[in-house]
Amino acid sequence: MAYDLEEQEQIASLKAWWDKYGNSTTWVLIAALAAYSGWNGWNYYQRDQAGKASALYDQVQAAVEAKDNAKVLRAAGDMETQFGSTAYAPMAALVAAKSSFEANDLKSAKAQLQWAVDHGADEFKAVAKVRLAGVLLDEKAYDEALKVLAGDVPAQFAGAVADRKGDVLAAQNKLAEARTAYKAALDATDKKNPGRQLIQMKLEAIGGTA
């Protein structure tokens, strides 16, 4: 089909543009397509990892229900090794720590809690800190417990951390510091939280007032 003059001019103009910019445009397009493909691939990988981690977490829970602490620890270890970047890993570590504590395996309980402190997101890390400090408190490892509790935590966990710090300081007979910690715990704990009453009782027991 013959082209009229206007169409020929448009084609000539397009050809000139392509000669000037076509190569760079092609590479930009290739890069964009590669990025899009990579993004889709990453999302698929994340979904796949989450699905496998979820199945393994079910195994952790099943072992807990069976009171098989050895199996709990194996499954939690697999989770941490294979799916450590997922939220299921610190969840499994916390579950495994509780299982080990109830089985009187304090070494494993501390190891699982330390893993959650080192690798978990802020929320999991805060919970693990409070629990690990509690185990260390039972062992009278007071300085180590205070070291675990150091550092920033999300605001919603500040009360629990300060409360645990008060417990450790009270056990060391550092009553003035313990009162300060319990008062900080009360300030950071919602007034509707039933745990406030226990914090206040501990504060009053060492001569403090809210």
UniProtKB/TrEMBL annotation:
| Principal place of residence | membrane
- Give the domain of life: Bacteria
Tell me where in or outside the cell this protein is found.
Cell membrane; Membrane
Q: What kind of membrane protein is this, topologically?
A: Single-pass membrane protein
**Pfam families in the record:** TPR_21
User: Which residue ranges does the record assign to the Ancillary SecYEG translocon subunit/Cell division coordinator CpoB TPR domain?
Assistant: 15-207
Q: Which GO terms describe its molecular function?
A: protein-containing complex binding
Q: Does the keyword Magnesium apply?
A: no
Q: Which protein are we looking at?
A: Tetratricopeptide repeat protein
Species per Swiss-Prot/TrEMBL record: Duganella flavida
